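Sequence, please.
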C-alpha cells in the first residue's frame, strides 16, 4: 500500500524515537509550504531539537494528503459529489468478511490519531465523519468514511457492516446501536469519571455528555460483546510518552491524561480482548509500561 508505513513500526517508535534521524520510507514527505501564496514546497525533517507530537503528524498528514498520494504514485481522488458513491449491500451478511475497525468519531483529534495509528498498522478502517469528501481528501483510500444520521437504524447497520471491532473516542454512539452481531470487541475512551466528579456550572455543562456516557456503557455491558472501557482523567493537549501512567482506583478524580496517550492506549487495547469486560482508570503518572499486553492482563486479574 503506497504511502503506508510497515506495520512493525509502532506509532511511538515512529514519532518518539530518541535518535536524530530523518524518517525515510522511500522518498521524503513533502508538505505544502506554510507561506500563504508561496509556490515552493518544504521538506519536513524531524530532529531532536523540535520533535513533533502525534497530533502534529496527523495534521501534516491531513493537510498533505493529496500531495502525498501524487508523490507515492497513487491516483488523485475525484472530489466531486458524483465520486462519492454510497456503499452497496450486494453481499449478504453471511458472506461478508468482518475485518474492519470502526472509529466512531473521525473528526476530533483523538479519533484522527487513532485512525492514523490503524493505517500504520495496515488495518482496514471505517470512520464516522461529518464531511465525507474532506475525509477522502485527508486519508484517501486508506479509510472508508461514512456520513449519516446515527439515529437512523439503516445507517447504523451500514456503519457496522464488515466491522470486527469498534473504537469510541467519545460518547453517544453505542446507545443507539440495536445489534452488535459479528462485533468481537468494543473499546471505549470514557470520561465518565470526570463528568461524575464535576460540580456547579461544570456539572450542568457535562450533564448531557454524562448521560450519553452512562447509556453507552449500560448498553455495551448488556450486549454480551467483549469490551474494554478506558476511564481517563481530564484529557490534555500535552505531548504523549513524556511520563508514565497510574492505574490506581480513583486516580481519575484529580489526574489527567494526554490525548496522545489516550489514543495510544485505545490502539494497544484493541488486540487484547477480555473474556467478558474490562473497566479500568488511567492517568499520567510514574509507572512505566513496557508491555501493554502484560499490563492489560494484570488489570484483568485485578478486576
Amino acid at each position: 500500500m503506497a504511502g503506508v508505513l510497515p506495520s512493525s513500526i509502532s506509532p511511538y517508535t515512529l514519532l518518539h524515537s530518541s535518535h536524530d534521524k530523518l524518517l525515510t520510507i522511500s522518498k521524503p514527505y513533502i508538505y505544502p509550504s506554510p507561506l500563504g501564496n508561496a509556490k515552493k514546497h518544504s521538506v519536513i525533517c524531524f530532529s531532536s531539537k523540535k520533535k513533533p507530537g502525534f497530533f502534529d503528524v496527523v495534521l501534516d498528514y491531513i493537510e498533505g494528503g493529496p500531495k502525498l498520494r501524487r508523490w507515492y504514485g497513487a491516483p488523485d481522488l475525484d472530489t466531486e459529489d458524483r465520486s462519492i458513491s454510497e456503499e452497496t449491500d450486494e453481499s449478504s451478511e453471511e458472506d461478508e468478511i468482518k475485518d474492519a475497525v470502526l472509529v466512531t468519531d473521525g473528526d476530533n483529534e483523538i479519533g484522527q490519531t487513532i485512525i492514523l495509528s490503524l493505517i500504520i498498522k495496515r488495518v482496514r478502517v471505517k470512520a464516522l465523519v461529518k464531511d465525507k469528501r474532506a475525509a477522502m481528501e485527508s486519508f484517501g483510500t486508506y479509510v472508508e468514511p461514512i456520513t449519516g444520521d446515527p439515529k437512523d437504524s439503516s445507517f447504523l447497520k451500514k456503519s457496522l457492516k464488515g466491522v470486527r471491532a469498534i473504537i469510541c473516542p467519545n460518547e453517544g454512539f453505542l446507545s443507539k446501536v440495536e445489534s452488535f452481531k459479528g462485533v468481537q470487541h468494543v473499546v471505549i475512551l470514557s470520561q465518565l469519571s470526570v463528568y461524575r466528579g464535576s460540580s456547579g456550572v461544570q456539572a450542568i455543562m457535562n450533564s448531557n455528555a454524562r448521560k450519553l456516557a452512562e447509556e453507552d456503557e449500560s448498553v455495551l455491558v448488556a450486549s454480551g460483546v467483549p469490551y474494554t472501557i478506558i476511564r481517563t482523567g481530564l484529557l490534555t493537549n500535552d505531548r504523549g510518552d513524556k511520563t508514565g501512567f497510574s492505574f490506581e482506583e480513583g486516580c481519575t478524580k484529580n489526574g489527567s491524561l494526554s490525548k496522545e496517550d489516550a489514543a495510544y492506549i485505545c490502539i494497544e487495547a484493541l488486540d487484547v480482548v477480555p473474556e467478558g469486560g474490562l473497566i479500568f482508570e488511567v492517568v499520567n503518572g510514574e509507572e512505566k509500561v513496557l508491555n501493554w499486553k502484560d499490563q492489560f492482563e494484570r488489570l484483568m486479574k485485578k478486576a
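The first helix runs from residue 11 to 15.
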